[in-house]
Amino acid sequence: MLTVTRPVRRWAVLGGAIAILLCTGVIYAFSVFAGPLRSEHGWTMAQVMLAFTINGAVAPIPMILGGMVVDRGGARISILAGALLFVAGFILTGQADTLTELYVSYGLIAGLGQGFAYSGCLSNTMKLFPDRRGLAAGLITGGMGAGTVVGAPVAERLIATSGLANTFLYLGLAYAVIVVVGWSFIRAAPEGYTPPGWTPPASSGPVVDVSWSGMVRTSTFYFIFAMLFLGAFSGLMIASQASLIGTSMFGLGAATAAGFVSLYSACNAAGRLAWGAVSDRLGYLRAIILIYAVVGLSMLTLVTGHGRVAFTVGIVGLGLCFGGVMGVFPALVMKSFGPRHQGANYGIMFTAYSLAAFFGPRIAADLSVANGGDYTKAFVAAIILAVAGVLVTSLFARSRTSKEGESRSSLPPSTPATGG
After folding, report:
1. What angle do CA 376, 288, 235 make, to 5 degrees?
2. How far is CA 150 from each of CA 45, 127, 255, rounded to the nearest angstrom?
3. What angle do CA 273, 279, 280 make, to 5 degrees?
4. Measured distance CA(301)–CA(310) in Å, rounded
5. If you average pLDDT over residues 131-140, what whole number do you get?
6. Is the pLDDT of residue 286 over 70?
């Protein structure tokens, strides 16, 4: 394990982590695979979507366990094991002939692998950027979102030319090579790392250091948990079924719909970087409230609009905001509870994402089936949750009015400070 006095090439570590998450990010292109899986095997869409649900539901297990490994200096082991496990599950998905095999390969194996890789890359890299938390979180999670930008159109073309099984195989082998190359740049973050020439600003207050057991006893934890669930719900709903929404409600062809999946993923990646930078300037809570507002307006556009223009506006807004949720919340958790236990803390907090992954796609799929492929009722449900998100975040911010500002804290080191 590196020591604090030994130089760390933190930008090289960041680059390696982004390369790895570019591969695991193809998980969000599931809507491109869902249709072919249904057609080739005769499964219902609800049955196919359960694989995506399982994938998200198992995420807290590797996030928490992997986070504990990272917090003890084992980032390289956790990241490599997770990335290769994801590759194995992805390749095996192409060989699945039964629903059980699909659920085990894509849902369980790929889900566990993705969680270990994501947890390791995110938590380890953020510890190297105490001076730019929002930006670092945006860049690292942006790599995850960008994976679908390339993966969706390539997968769609390969499915048409080489078949479904070969698509999973060819992409999986390519990802294996990229993962190993990216991993060669990964180094464990030294405990208490401070970039050369940088000192924490006086306004940041004393260092916060709260373990998971202390975190779950605070009201801050439950506020952030609820905010993360409400923020991730709509994004996961669209990520899992963007292609199907485009073809069933807006009259798009399969190839065009796949292009919109890439557009959504590009906005997802850009949103992680953009909202991360915004949160560094405006404060995390203000940024989150703005995210909820844009989500509500984007969903309203999908409900009231018609044709390609309305679908484009909705997809762009929701993609940017889902990226913002994934980029802002890791930094908010680190600000609130400190960097030392970030791996385990964010892993536990991430169970909110898993709940959203369980309910979002299922509710959307069930409501669309009940309404002949119309997702309007699912969109209305998402609007209601976005409004709830604004209210919860505003209440959380109001409970901190004793502070001079979101970025200022006078709490003792053992007490979590909610970040602005």
Report:
1. 35
2. 24, 28, 14
3. 95
4. 6
5. 77
6. yes
Q: In this predicted model, what pLDDT tens digit does every residue of 58-88 receive, in sequence order?
A: 877 888 888 888 888 888 999 999 999 999 9
Asked whether the beta carbons of 258 and 35 are under 8 A apart, the reply is no
Is residue 196 a part of any domain in this protein? no
Other beta carbons within 10 Å of 205: 17
Residue with tokens 């991993």: 183
Token pair, residue 320, equals 């940017």
Spatial separation of the C-alpha atoms in residues 289 and 301, rounded to whole Å: 19
Which percentage of the chain shows pLDDT scores above 70? 91
Please tell me the pTM assigned to this model. 0.73
Give dist(CA 341, CA 369) in Å, integer.
43
Q: Are 23 and 83 in contact (CB under 8 A)?
A: yes
What sign for the dihedral angle of Cα 199, 202, 204, 210? positive
For residue 220, which of 62, 339, 63, 338 has the smallest C-alpha distance? 338
Residue 166 predicted with pLDDT over 50:
yes
DSSP at 339? S
Start-to-end Cα distance in the chain: 33
Section 12-36 average pLDDT: 87
Contact 99, 151 (CB under 8 A): no
Task: Report yes or no: 205 and 417 within 8 Å, Cβ to Cβ.
Answer: yes
Q: What is the DSSP letter of 103?
A: I
- DSSP three-state, residue 72: coil
Q: Is residue 210 part of a domain?
A: yes
Position 105: which residue type?
S
**Position 78 in a domain:** yes
CA distance 327 to 397: 19
Overall number of domains in the chain: 1
Rounded Cα–Cα distance for residues 389 and 230 (Å): 6
- Give the DSSP H or E segment for 356: helix 351-370
Q: Which domain holds residue 101?
A: 10-191+203-398
Q: pLDDT tens for residues 341-394?
A: 888 898 899 889 888 877 887 788 788 777 777 888 888 988 999 999 999 999
Half-sphere exposure of 43 (CA within 13 A, CB side): 23
Task: Name the residue among 358, 146, 130, 406 with its Cα closest to residue 270.
Answer: 146
Tell me whether residue 381 is in a domain: yes
Which H or E run includes 346?
A: helix 342-349
The CATH number covering residue 113 comes to: 1.20.1250.20
